[in-house]
Amino acid sequence: MESFTTERIETDGYTTEYLDSRGDGDAVLLLHGGGPGANAATNWRGFIPGLADRHRAIAPDILGYGNTDHPEDGPPTLIGWMRARVRQVISLLDALGIEQAHVIGNSMGGALAMWLTEAHPERVKSLVLMGSAGGHMAAPTQEVIRMATYYKDPSKEGLKALTRWFVYDESDLGADLDSIVEDRFIELSRPEVRRSYTRFFNPPVSLPSEMTVPQSSLRRIQQRTLLVHGREDRFVTPDSSVYLNQHIPNSQLHIFEKCGHWVQIERRESMLALVRLFYTEEL
């Protein structure tokens, strides 16, 4: 039996779908990444059970992904999408009566977590940024370019290659590899998902610079911050988290060897142990 339910609620004029463990303790808001076919379930369904005994874990389908409503006239810029997603998250917290939450962000969700903290610092209790975008990076890697331009060749074979690249050792996924590819391919084949994705990643080369959080904003983040990264991550390379660690005052960085972009999957137990210690302020 899953330790969460799937719910829908009105946010900022449209419906957001989200996972909710309805546990006791502080709320933890989990923000998923931005790859093709991503949503709350694909990123977090294996991770939420490790939090649900101590916290209320809430994971929304971020605007432009999953079963959250997809606007036909979405923002024309990446910055516009990020601002709309900040409004979505605040509206979700308001609707659920949550004044403040711990926030965990993966990849694009990490950048969104920092944008959220910049705009509404009073709503964020702490930050965990995992393989986070939003830090200073060099030019996009070939893996990022292939991800951002996926719909130029929206094949199952291309998606399987991307999925393999997300992890250091694809054998860690075992039999789950084919099911992950199948689930994500069904998701990204939906016309509304394709429309949002191609509008968000247009043009794809602008992604790193537009999502980057300025140094002047990073140094104003006062929340305790845990940065986690896979050493072999080729989508958001570890230098991004090193940069964030240098500029976020109250931050610490943990890098996992032989680990790619999906720390919450490849190093699930170690990641959960870190988060638990971090929330009890023993880390």
Task: Give a quick summary of the entry.
The chain is α/β, with parallel strands linked by helices. The protein has helices at 40-44, 78-96, 108-119, 142-148, 156-166, 176-188, 191-200, 207-211, 215-218, 239-247, 263-266, 268-279, and strands at residues 5-11, 14-20, 27-31, 56-60, 101-106, 124-130, 225-230, 251-256.
Please provide a written account of the structure.
The protein is an alpha/beta fold and 283 residues long. The chain has one domain (5-279): 3-Layer(aba) Sandwich (Rossmann fold). The chain is built from twelve helices and eight strands. The protein has an eight-stranded mixed beta sheet, with helices on both faces. A hairpin with a 2-residue loop joins strand 1 and strand 2 (14-20). Helix 2 (78-96) crosses helix 3 (108-119) and helix 5 packs across helix 6. The chain is globular, with a radius of gyration of 17 Å. The mean pLDDT is 92.
